Amino acid sequence: MSPAAPPSPSPARSASPTGSPLPSRGSRLLDWRVRFGALALIWGFSFLFIKVGTEGFAPFQVTFGRLLFGTAVLAAALVVKRDRLPRGARVWGHLTVAAFLLNALPFSLFAYAELTIPSTLAGICNATTPLWGMLLSLVALSEDRPTRVRAAGLGIGFMGVLTVLGAWQGFSGLDVTGTALALLASFSYAVGWIYVRRTLSDTGVSHLALAGSQVGLATLQLAVVTPLFTSMPESVEVVPLLAVIALGALGTGYAMLLQYGVVAEVGPTTASMVTYFIPVIATAAGVAVLGEQLTWNTPVGAVIVLAGAALTQTRTSRRTAPRTAATTALPKTPAPTPAPDSPAAPQPATRT
Q1: Would you call 13 helix, strand, or coil by DSSP?
Q2: Helices (H), 166-296
Q3: Fewest Cβ atoms closer than 10 Å to its Cβ: which of 75, 112, 164, 206?
Q4: Which residues of 134-151 are buried (b: 16+ CB within 10 A; e: fewer)?
Q5: Which of 312, 249, 252 is nearest to 276 (CA)?
């Protein structure tokens, strides 16, 4: 669920996501592999947190709480780092659109989807973001030309989706509406990443400031929408409330900060591998903690989806495809947000 990642630092000057020099290796408290694992766990468990949250709150309330607690964590990070918010109406206008496409809309869609589908299926649907991204990039990004391998990956990935959904048996036992909402959420991530790459790739503002601003704007959007479609719960249950707090503070706030550090230290390509652990962890959590049932086609289809997604992220050599600002800059989704992968460049996912 995924968040956005900054471009990888140049060899000449290693910098943090906020633009300040990175601390020396000895000053890092945790090895990047530990932080990578924590990031995968947090985003993988996000689908479980959504499921538990909807047991005590309306979907819009889950999304609003998620964004509110995520904004609080990012705002605290901005204060500690003494970072500045973006300036200019144009940047804020683009951030408002990005907040809707990468946060408010997909987060809400996943929350509504998990009213009727298992968290395991939602996690697998989230993994289709690179597939939608490549499909859209063929039209929207002229510099992102397909290769035979990537085209094959697209076909393989969607075959995996059909396997997960049990297409050969007429989608029997599948909640079509909930599944469609989860797939639409992943599609929204893909659209949002293309929009971000076109409008916010070179603002001169730190990625942390963009992320905090974007998530804050999404919180305001949900603050307007939530009272219109929901009413205050008669009672607040502890477990769903803790799930929403964890979803926001960890999955939308702290995970973003972890992501920035991993990308800055080891680069976007290595960091993007977290994408392929998320559905695995989401499935394991749903089965082990929530007791969700799996049929053989779910894990098999998930493996096929991930294989196809990996193929769509293969890059052509520099000889055939010179790197440009658009192709080297990382948008998941973050580019400011917590969201899955960019359609045209390998990067960390979001999450949901």
Answers
A1: strand
A2: 176-199, 207-229, 238-246, 255-266, 268-271, 278-290
A3: 75
A4: bbbbbebbeebebeeebe
A5: 312
